[in-house]
Amino acid sequence: MSKTAAAEVLGAVVAVILAVACWNAGVEVHRFAAVADGAPEFESASYSGSWIAGATVLVVVAGVLAVDAARRSLLIRSHTR
Q1: Given a cut of 80, is residue 29 above it in pLDDT?
Q2: Cα separation of 63 and 66, whole Å?
Q3: At residue 32, what are phi and psi to the nearest 5 degrees?
């Protein structure tokens, strides 16, 4: 594996870690207690569009880096080079 492919794999891993952090920052869970006796508790989630969009972009970047790293590592050198 070339140095460039290794750097791309490392970049893809970092992008995935950042995507998970962005996704977790973009989800907020609200818990509401039961109003009446015997009624279940209620849980609601709200999503921040900018954090979720950032996570999506980071996943796409990680995918492109991983595909290019695979292409570079599997690339067969031409005999004319």
Answers
A1: yes
A2: 5
A3: -115, 135
